[in-house]
Amino acid sequence: MLLLDLKGEPGKDCRGFCKFCYFRKLDKKRVEPLGCKNCQFTIGCDYCTYSVRELNGPFLPIPLVLMQLQSSLMFKRYEKVNITAGGDVSCYPNLVELCKAINDFGLKIHLGYTSGKGFNDIKIAERLVECGVDEVTFSVFSTDPKLREGWMNDKNSENVIECLKYFCEHCEVHTAIIVIPGVNDQEVLYKTLSDLEEWGAKGVILMRFANTEEQGLILGNAPILEGIKVHTLEEFKEIVKEAYEEFNLRVTGTPLYDPVTGTPFAIAKEEKILEKLREKIEGEGTIITGNVSYPYLKKIFEGTEVNVVKVNKDIADLITAKDLEKVNKKELKETVFIPEKAFVHDEVAKRILNRDIIVRVGSLTLDGEVSGVYTKKEALDYEIKAFEEFIRMINFFGYKR
Fold first, then answer.
1. Long-range Cβ contact pairs of 375-381 (< 8 A, separation 24 or more)
2. pTM (predicted TM-score)
């Protein structure tokens, strides 16, 4: 699938911030790089300085977007285009024109993550489907127009919901709901899920709202909402489980979990597979991870020379240098493994942890944002392959000297 990025920024190119938007309260005048795997000799690159904050500039003009489309099609054959943006795709002023041009190339279209706030009339949805849109990822929040209007800054809420219904009837629709305690959970959530089931949505990902740095707000803008006590990880997992059992929808959750595949770390429940993997471990080292992954990784590497240390950050990919500064160095072995996507420069990690061998590790499991298209067997196969590769890294970098 070809990814076509229209650029744009949250708050500017989405008809105003949603109340719960993770990019609210950002101080754009004080942009400091976090550091990441993409940085070269110094701390800071486009990704960890600007992209992580969605500071992409305004929407690209359509001639430039079409030039990029044509250039991409010269070198590779695609069947579908995924239109995405830092702003809201539905707010792109030339969206219908763009989709028509893509359709003229004989390509199907996936409208990437959109709240639909730019859809003023159901005729727009009808025209987009005519132009080849056959898949939509839609941020719903609630099917209650008043809630959408108040919490999503959606002045067109009733029209937007009608467009969502139309897409559900004519496209493959995947929906997303950021769940906020006392706002759109409990009965409100069940009404939304009931509507989505009735309209024909294929699936829904429930997204745990984050309101503190520990929960993932690493850009210095916490809290997003004053006075909101976020669901604990276990509470949220139970919400996902109950929603899956109640509705005929493919329900997944992030940062956990997927009731169908058993992810994250479905492999942790497969003792026979774990025994075979543990037998292959010849090296040693320390894995630094977050609150979600910690209990699973601890069980997976039980009885081996690999120990697991957690920092107070729920999602391991959002670990920063500040988190590493709080690690007890006495718990660390000579070789330390950190998440590949952690927001810390390699040299900074070495200095903080006082270790020369810092190794980045790619994804070992599937998040609910992607697991929804996997079967349980496919998810296990993914994890087995990922852990086999990780064990090879452990044996090489953590060789017992």
1. 375/260, 375/261, 376/260, 376/261, 376/262, 376/266, 378/261, 379/258, 379/261, 379/262, 379/263, 379/266, 380/261, 380/266, 380/267, 380/270, 380/273
2. 0.94
